[in-house]
Design goal:
This protein has one domain: Rossmann fold. The strands form five sheets. It has a seven-stranded mixed sheet, with helices on both faces. A four-stranded mixed sheet has the order 1-2-4-5. Strands 3-6 form a two-stranded parallel sheet. It is an alpha/beta fold. A hairpin with a 5-residue loop joins strand 1 and strand 2. It has ten helices and 17 strands.
Length: 322
């Protein structure tokens, strides 16, 4: 898993390792104590899996698709992937293993890709990267480096398995959250922060971290669940939103823009994508738990089960002044 930090080596003089290293050590200790790790450690050491590499990678399909040599032994690959359930984002086609994730993330990619701007030879970060689906999609545009950040150990393990098969030296994973961007001062040309801001107790401070880690002239794409109201508003939650225990405030699209402007960004563009639907987010074999259909009022799907406005999606693109 620590190999996922490999792309950082050539940038170590630009990164505050004194801030980052303790957080990575904490994440490694937590991951090694997890149920996922105890289930996987023997499977990952199987000689046939250790030798397994994709000889063909297709990134343009909805599903990131890997093919393996006819002589490859993929016996343990399905067991490894099954041990890492739930898969929240995807889909993936890993040889004969089709991972139908909870989120059909190619739908979001089709919304986001046209507003990213140039990626080639740029330093790109994906905050809340989950298992790296969007990182691998970005890699087809030849970034200088593409780094994912996510503090969930299962996501780190999923990415590690995928990167073991793909072996793209430009793509890495840092097992920490948005606040550790403080260790990357003026490092990135482009930051994606998707599905993260409503999980932050202090969304303004989170936006300041984004601002701090982007180079002058760089840009951020801040995407979020939103409420479909006008004006700069935050829905402050009493307890849960759509059964989420770790959601603190759901913004309007204009509130996303206001957070970025207050953090110092300029030249913003708002993109509204409409309601999240069960075409995009649903229960599957690879995420066999409650999903969007269970989070909405069965008598009025325009409301959550708690009575709040049902989630929409929006993104704001903003730039750091030169």
């Amino acid at each position: 898993m620590l190999r996922t930090l490999g792309p950082l080596k050539r940038f170590r003089d630009e990164i505050d390792l004194g801030l980052l290293a303790p957080e990575v050590r904490r994440a490694w200790k937590q991951a090694r104590a997890s149920n996922h790790w105890s289930s996987l450690r023997n499977l990952l050491q199987e000689p046939n899996f250790k030798k397994l590499r994709a000889d063909s990678i297709q990134l343009n399909n909805d599903a990131i698709t890997l093919a393996f040599p006819s002589s490859a032994d993929t016996t343990h690959l399905r067991s490894i992937c099954k041990a890492l359930i739930p898969w929240r984002i995807g889909p993936y086609q890993l040889g004969g293993v089709a991972i139908d994730a909870e989120w059909r993330s190619h739908i979001k990619w089709e919304r986001i890709a046209p507003i990213l701007g140039p990626v080639e030879n740029q330093r790109v970060g994906d905050i809340g990267a989950s298992n790296g689906y969007f990182l691998f999609k970005l890699s087809q545009n030849n970034p200088e480096v593409a780094l994912g950040f996510d503090p969930i150990d299962r996501c780190w393990l999923q990415f590690s398995v995928l990167q073991h098969l793909i072996r793209d030296p430009r793509v890495g994973f840092v097992p920490t959250g948005i606040m550790t961007l403080e260790a990357f001062p003026e490092f990135f040309d482009l930051l994606l922060c998707m599905g993260v801001i409503y999980h932050q107790r202090d969304p303004f401070l989170a936006c300041k971290r984004l601002f701090h880690s982007i180079r002058r002239g760089g840009r951020v794409v801040l995407e979020s669940l939103t409420i479909p109201e006008s004006g700069s508003k935050l829905l402050i939650l009493k307890e849960r939103y759509a059964k989420m225990r770790n959601a603190w405030a759901i913004p309007t699209a204009e509130a996303l823009e206001s957070l970025l402007l207050r953090a110092g960004f300029v030249a913003t563009e708002i993109h509204r994508f409409g309601p999240i639907t069960t075409t995009e987010q649903r229960r599957t074999e690879w995420a066999p738990y409650e999903s969007l259909a269970d989070f909405l009022d069965p008598l009025d799907p325009s409301r959550t089960i708690e009575g709040y406005p049902a989630p929409h999606s929006a993104a704001v693109v903003a730039h750091k002044p030169m």
